[in-house]
Design brief:
The structure holds two protein chains of two kinds. By secondary structure, chain A is an alpha+beta fold. Helix content of chain A is 58%, strand content 9%. A five-stranded antiparallel beta sheet of chain A has the order 3-4-5-8-7, with no helix packed on it. In chain A, strand 4 (681-690) and strand 5 form a beta hairpin. Chain B is built from six helices and seven strands. By secondary structure, chain B is of the alpha+beta class. The termini of chain B are far apart. Classes of the chains: A alpha+beta, B alpha+beta.
Chain lengths: 792, 165
Amino acid sequence: MPSSVRLQEMIRVIRSARTQGEERGIIQRECADIRAQFRQGDNGERSHSLAKLLYVHMLGYPAHFGQMECVRLIASTRYSEKRIGYLGAMMLLDENQDASLLITNSIKNDLSHNSQYVQSLALCTLACMGSAEMCRDLAPEIERLLRASNSYIKKKATLCAVHIIRKVPELAELFTPSARSLLSEKNHGVLHGAVVLITELCEHNPGTLDQFRKAVPELVQIMKGLVTSSYSPEHNVAGISDPFLQVRILRLLRILGHNNDTASDAMNDLLAQVATNTDSSKTAGSAVLYETVLTIMDINSESGLRVLAVNILGRFLLNNDRNIRYISMTSLQKIVQTDHNAVQRHRGTIVDCLKDQDTSVKRRALELSLALVSAVNIRSMMKELLIFLSTCPPELRSHTTSGIFNAAERYSPSKRWHIDTILHVLTTAGGDVRDETVPNLIQLITTASELHCYTVHKLYRALVKDISQQSLVQVACWCIGEYGDLLLKGECEEIEPVQVTEDDVLDALETVLQSHMSSPATRGFALTATMKLSTRITDNVDRIRSIVSIYGSCIDLELQQRAVEYNALFKKYDHMRAAVLERMPVMDKNSPGHTNGDTSGEIKEPDPSKPKPVEAGLLSEPASQVCDLLDLLDGTDTPLQPSPAPTSNPTTTSSADLLDLLGGLEPTPVLTETVYEKNGLSLKIQCDKQTETEVTVTLIGSNSAQNDITNFTLQAAVPKSVQLQMKAPSGNVIPAHGLGQVTQTVVLNNPNKVSLKMRIRVSFSNQGAVHQDTVQIDSFPTQASQTSVSPL
Amino acid sequence: MRGGAGGIQLFSMRFLLLFSRQGKLRLQKWFTALSDRDKKKIIRDVMQMVLVRPPKSCNFLQWRDLKIVYRRYASLYFCCGLEQGDNELITLELLHRYVELLDQYFGNVCELDIIFNFEKAYFILDEFIIGGEVQETSKASVAKSMEEADSLQETMEEYLNKPTY
């Protein structure tokens, strides 16, 4: 078989493989062949083998062993070998490969080759994979080609220069002089490259940007020529003369006109002309118009021009082509803050785009709609957004719900509307809302006290209908627990009253408790609500008692704990129950520092050593303390405090045992004991720190006598296995009348954990008399053991 | 990473991919240096995203920090990754121009042409785009250059039989 066909044959064979394994086998054989070929050296077959390897590479198989072959082929004198060699270099070598440096010399030589097609290969490859080092090496060559060569080479050299500048920004200066003169070229390819090069130069250096502003009139001329020229078949696309070049020029004008009045003025007329005259029935024209609009919006254009631009975008919104609608919305999104009113005029069309079939379009429409919501249009916009929510694709749902909540928070016309909206969202898309929604909604409900009756009725009905949406169920349970009495009364102005019996309500809560759809957190809410109802209903308290006692043996630790404690509330503390389960006061929202995320009404750890925040929530202490404790339950926006903190003075009521749960968290007072008192000197020992093997104590000497105590010294002795370290005393004079103290810290290291004893010799002078005494300390004051938090 | 003067956005093409409806890669051109692993991951992700799009969809997608512009021609998807400041509509025109060039060269180009003559597809691309930017806006010019370059191939008879290697 002639070698020339072998590549095609190999491709055919590979394609005929029926399994991945078969393909791998074929590839392995071919690669072995290729490797053998490479080893054989120059035999006219090398380019075929490299081509085969490149195909194999494209299929995803490793081809590193071909790198050196690329280097060799590039250095060949045959064009076909160079061509495939350079292609191989672009595919297999990038700046991260060491072998790439080896082709620098070949590229250098080829840049001065007498065939422009060889030069072209070198230029193209350098622009594709040239590393910073290679670029530095070859930059002067490229600069020379920019100035001296024919159009074919010039256009490639300019783009190569662009690559060099991207890799080595300092080399920008090298190309700046030649870049300007390229603008006078007639060849479109060169012109296009020149505009790209100048754009790149301006991006890298604000000084250069200033320089090139002088070129604005020239650029305007070129554009005018393109826009008004008669039909030129060579560059024409759908009636637009060279849209690629037009777009690049417009982009450069944007950069030059940005923040600069003179430049912006100079291009004003041109932009107006392009905006009005370009035929946008095909993509090419729309592309030019689009770029024009972007430029108008980004420079200091006159207001008339801006209005023109926004109107073009508005027209785009009505275009049948989805792509045009999409990019129109992207652009409107960019200017919605700065030109809000102009964009508002197109709100209707934008909202219609919410109904488009295409997800990309829907997403854009959603973003834009949310940005357009204002106090004026909130009701109608929310209607549309809620309709959208019920049919939107799943990937957009959580974004939509957060957007709706934000909008509702900022612009809701009334509390009732706000609550209704949130409820609607929870019913439609409860699974896609953020965790903070539940506490936020609860907080909102408490503040709308006139609506408690309405809210609880609405929530009850929603609960009865469907208990699958956890956030909704949680809020409903909480409300029923809080406002169950209003629910049972049956009268409510804003809703047709429905007779709800106590049994109905308890049925609903029990359904939630028993359903496997309910999450543990939800069941917690339901149980607490059931408990709270015990003070709000009259006939069925026994039913509540039995529910609560059943859950006392629930497998879920959290529920079990709650149930056991509620049981205790019934049995031992029935006298307190009413007070404990009283209606909660309004919670204040702290606007900054939302830290609701963690709490969200879900108590995750059934950790018995922590005080149950649920219990904390039941305590109906005077408002301020209650609010602190409520932090833990409902996550109001005051920053979450670590659990020990909100126990400021919980022992004010007589319910010491219940509150013992919190008692152990009081900061433990450090205990001192007086060990010696005589002659006016009083010596106390204070336990500072105690671990299993180490005790730190401070000896405090104070003086109640009339005269100062002087030469006060302490010496200490401890059992053999204990190590003693006495720090320096604070002084040796103790002022009279208790006006001062001397302290001395002693560290005792007790590795064998023997019982600690210490003998202290005290010696001091008072009124000229020297006293010496010995004190034996047999037991050290330890930190009081905390009242353990035990289930009641 | 390129710096911008005065907050102007960056524009550049990051990659150009051709792949079939079955997810087979037919051409890959990268305009930034990436590891093989990264390239493979991008190809996988982009293919996955594009192949599930229903027929009459918008041709533009947002993916990570890039805009993806794609269009389907018969059994091949032509797909570009652009940076944020790029003009998607002109990129559609660019993809179309590339297809026209291929069509002109191969005469009624089909996927098989590109499979069996992949290196030529690359050569044509390299006459049209350099470093992610258009180098020649005239169709005729590109065609002429290809013709002349091909004539330099040493083994003419084999070459004219269409399979080059």
